Amino acid sequence: MSTLTLAAAEEIIAEAHERAQALGKAVSVAVVDAGGFPVAIRRPDGARPLTPDIARAKAYTAAVMQRPGKMLKKWQESQPVFFSQLSQLPGAAMPILATEGSVTIKKDGAVIGGLGIAGGTADEDQQIADETLAALGYELEFAAWGVSGAPVTHAGKDA
After folding, report:
1. pTM above 0.85, yes or no
2. Which of 20, 40, 88, 148 is most buried, most CB within 10 Å of its CB?
3. 3-state secondary structure labels for all residues of the chain
4. CA-angle at 85, arms to 82 and 86, nearest 5°
5. Digits of tens for pLDDT over the chain (159 positions)?
6. How far apart are CA 133 and CA 54, in angstroms?
C-alpha cells in the first residue's frame, strides 16, 4: 500500500503553484494523508489569509470522504442536514466541504490523501487540482457512491 510522504506532498504543492502561477492566481495548497492529517500546507505571497484553512478543509474532505468534493455535491444538496452534522461529529477535525478544488489523492487503487486548492474561482481551483494530480501520475477515477461497477472520473457525471 502506498503512503503519502512529505517529499510527495511538496512535489504536489510545487506543481500546483506552478499551474496557479500560469493562471495568474495566488492559491494556497494543502495536502493531507488518508486520515485527513496535514502533511504540508503552503500559502504563497499574495494569497488571501483564509485560503490555507479553506484548502486544508477541502483536502480533509477529499481524504476522509474518499471522494473528490465535486462528487459529493449532489449528496450534500439532497441531504444538507446530514452534511452539516458531519462536521459536528466528535472525531471530525475540519468541516466537510463538498466543493471544487477538493480532490482525493489515489495511487495504485488506494486512497492515500487529499489535495485542497483555495484562492481561485471554483473552476480554477478544480482545474489546478486535476491537472496537478494528473501530471504527477495519480488516479482521478472514483466509483460513484452506492453504485457497483466501473469507476467514473469525478469530472464526469456526479453520483
Report:
1. yes
2. 20
3. CCCCCHHHHHHHHHHHHHHHHHCCCCCEEEEEECCCCEEEEECCCCCCCCHHHHHHHHHHHHHHCCCCHHHHHHHHHHCHHHHHHHCCCCCCCCCCCCCCCEEEEEECCEEEEEEEEECCCHHHHHHHHHHHHHHCCCECEECCCCCCCCCEECCCCCC
4. 90
5. 578 999 999 999 999 999 999 999 999 999 999 999 999 999 999 999 999 999 999 999 999 999 999 999 888 888 888 888 887 888 777 888 899 999 999 999 999 999 999 999 999 999 999 999 999 999 999 887 655 445 555 554 444
6. 19
Length of the chain: 159
